[in-house]
Amino acid sequence: xxxxxxxxxxKPVNQEIYDALTVLQHRGQDSAGIMxxxxxxxxxxxxxxLVNDVFTEKHMTRLRGxxxxxxVRYPTAGTLSLNEAQPFYVNSPFGICLAHNGNLVxxxxxxxxxxxxxxxxxxxxxxxxxxxxxxxHEIQIQQKESLTxxxxxxxxxxxxxxCSGGYAVVAMILNEGLVAMRDPNGIRPLVIGTREAGSKxxxxxxxxxxxxxxxxxxxxxxxxxGESIYISQNGDFYSNQCVEPKTYTPCIFEFVYFARPDxxxxxxxxxxxxLRMGEFLAxxxxxxxxxxxxxxxxxxxxxxxxxxxxxxxxxxxxxxEGFIKNRxxxxxxxxxxxxxxxxxxxxKLNPIGLEIKDxxxxxxxxxxxxxxxxxxxxxxxxxxxxxxxxxxxxxxxVKFPNVYGIDMPASSELIASNKSDEELAKFIGADWLxxxxxxxxxxxxxxxxxxVQDFDTSCFxxxxxxxxxxxxxxxxxxxxxxDAAQVKQEKERQQIEIQDPTSxxxx
Length: 507
Fold this sequence. Notes:
alpha+beta, Rossmann fold, six-stranded antiparallel beta sheet, 36% helix
């Protein structure tokens, strides 16, 4: 999962892109990058690390121009992020920069075609670089004396027809303008906002609406599946439905875990969705008669707070903060290696014994992925004096890998894929364990005012909406995402940094 942003303004955009990336930092903590267009001159800074570590005052002053794009990235299996911080750039035609959130499932075929047929050079294994070169090649085919909206939309159509997967794209064409695209299934989120600047309108594209709010832009709408947006450097706005939407199925895990609660995605409030998850979960707990022994409901911070609040309300018991979170530790389920994740959980959370000791505690989490975090948190609660520890997940069992941009573990490491609920409760050490049902989760997120038809629920159901995810592909990512591969990649990355500490410094 990544965060992207693009702005076309009447004044320098460096600070506003920086601010937007800090707001989107929850979507990726591995690397950050900004590219701006200073009257046809590319200005670039990208590196590994958090936004406020990557960009210093020196870097910010060099990012000149009134149009630019930015990206925050979290590590993706099978890659070394030293070479793959975004945005990417190709100099022909025009000079095109591109950043992307998501994952292409036909990258192998696309890379072969680009290399062998289109004769494009690819420098990394990144699907983003392949996507950029495809877009550049199609722009080259359409190129006339000057770029036109029609040529941008024809190139976008080719991208939609040749790329499969979940992707939201923002691209900057030097001295020309900004392009944004969303995959024909609408899996990854992408919104556009506007702001008045005298007699002109400024535009901003971002992964989540909270980035628009932080910069003072008003949410215009979501970019639709299969739609391309082109905004010239002068602020002329063009949109085109390049291909008919195959479906309108945003990733439901955005609402469960990734998106900020104050975001609106496809007309649906993340915060309200999580409240409703708690309501449905409470109903299920009551139906099964599991609520009688519960003394206190405690969320696993942060994403489960809204759900836990509603569970406590409907069960008629106290809601308490029982764990304090260290906000400077990254999200643990995407960290490479089991030992690193274990250490991170202990550093990340500390129990408040006052709220736990001598009580029957119901812990609410957004989901259970590997089970490692859940097991340690339950141990921490018992060490803090809990009499009994119950555990409920606001999401159904995660049984299948997500192939559309969320780097979930290999199937063999997804704890629910090979254990029953009873076995899993015993494994994590809970007195009882309860999951949300998939039907209730969908009902929690669905709102009547939204045009969304359904959701990508592949990590829960195993149904992949692009209909081209083969067993061979799943076996391939299994090899890339297992713990042994993750640890090996991390060691290789550290070795590169030791040999050349400046290898990632750009600009």
